[in-house]
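Proteins fold reproducibly. Consider a sample protein:
=====
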Amino acid sequence: MCGIFGLISKRKDINVAQLIREGLERMEYRGYDSAGIALVNNGKIELRKKAGRIADINADGWFDKMPGQFGVGHTRWATHGPPIANNSHPHMDCTGKIALVHNGIIENYQDLRRKLTERGHKLVSETDTEVFPHLIEEFRKTGLDLKDSVIETVKLCKGAYGVVVCDADNPEYMVVARKESPLVIGITEDETTYCGSDIPAFLPLTRNAIILDDNEVAVLYPGKCEIFHVDDGEKAKREIFTVDYSMDAAQKVLDGKEYKWFMHKEMHEIPRKIIDQVRMPQEHLDEFAQAILNADHVFITAAGTAYYAAIAGKYQITKFGGPYIQGILCSELVDALPTIPPNSVLIAVSQSGETADTIEAVRYAKEQFGVKICSVVNVVGSSLTRYSDHVIITTAGPEIAVASQKAYCTQVTALSMVALKIAALTNTLTTDEIEKYESALLDTAEACALILKDEKSLINLAHKIAYKSNLYFLARGISTSAAFEGALKLKEIAYIHTEAYAAGESKHGPIALIEEGFPCVFITPPDQTYPKIIGNVMEMKSRGAMIISVVADYDVNISEISHHTIRVPIKNNKYAIAMSIVPFVLPLQMLAYFVSDYKGFDPDKPKNLAKSVTVK
């Protein structure tokens, strides 16, 4: 989950260290425990690394003052060893000539480390990464060049890696390799080549990009690169593509307004992202929906926020004429499904398309059982898209805040569009009915815009719950997705213990904890679950709970029995109600944000978390 950024250039008028440091800051959403930079400087490696966030480390220009012609940097999310300077990347070999950064996990590093130590190597960190430069060192001593040494090294390493290697004795190029961890290349032709964990790393510098595939190695020269297959060493052909989104997405400015945090700014992007999603290309929708209908068995998988979006999508697809769908957390799928029946489809939902648990589940289903993969993903060219038979790209765009909100809203919208397409293909609804539901889905953008305009009431409520120790989030039916998402957000960025339940389960244990003032958040759209959830609200209120209800703005009954209400501006008809999941979730995401900000936390970079979870 770490962030990588490096460059090699013909230009002599640039501050290489400063450019790398700035690129790393654009990657900090991937990890921010520690950071380091290694530069090749006239036949030597200049190395600086330290625990902490980049801005603090570089407060006196410590990184920016580094001399060197080219190199690479790394911002870390700790896996092997605590976030201290010794464990920070880059790591070096015994000669001090080879510097390497790594994103991923090497599963057999203990065995490799033991053998290297027996052969006299001195490894100074607790990381799995450090075996890489020492293995490359050994292959270099046999006479192999840097590229072939990297190829032979990655053949020995089991697990996931995105690596960048600099060799002080090879000033003409550096080498990168990828397997199951993202690595992208940026090109300013005949001038500069960049590499990073994600496109925003180099987006202010070039829009020309190449995405490295699994089991590939690339040699980066100034302004060009060559790509090779690890298995046979043969060259791979790859077209440069133009990135079609702007760097505005990686700035805290929207429509001329500067926001304190990315999370707040990205919430305000949601209405336009919903509109973009509803207007997605229809041909991809048709293929995706038809694949689901053609299957005998359908599963849906994801992790975290994406899984809660998947739950909402599962309800929508079934409601509008689709088949029964079994939802399984991606980290549990391999164990939960020792066999998968023939003619199955797996729907995978992901923001980054690189989540290790999701990729493992998809590969298992596809490679062992021939399952067709339909993915809903936010990143073009990501690992998930390449494993998929059918892909819907969400319109969230770059999401810098670690805690997702845009992605959830566009994922739910995309899956709702799939549901309506299934209704059309199966004649479950008339054309007129489908158009009304689509119009209602489009109207959710306006509902979200109105919610975002009225932040004051949510800020006041955030202050009331900011120092509560525990909260429940309760809902029924499709709204359980909102309950789980609301609870997760408050955990992630405000560090409050929360639990989400289907409201009917609350009396089977959770109610035992209710005491005077215990906050219970109910998500209560006026759908078929409304009469039953009134009873659940009363059960909690009669035991002293503080009732906070998310209701339609025309609600009366639940509002009367609640201490606080969050009112959602939707129309009073079945079309608006059926498509209202995103407007009912957004205020919960906003509530978590305002609690976090009120308590003085950084909502963009919550502790112990990173954006793209590339470890299992």
The chain has a mean pLDDT of 93.
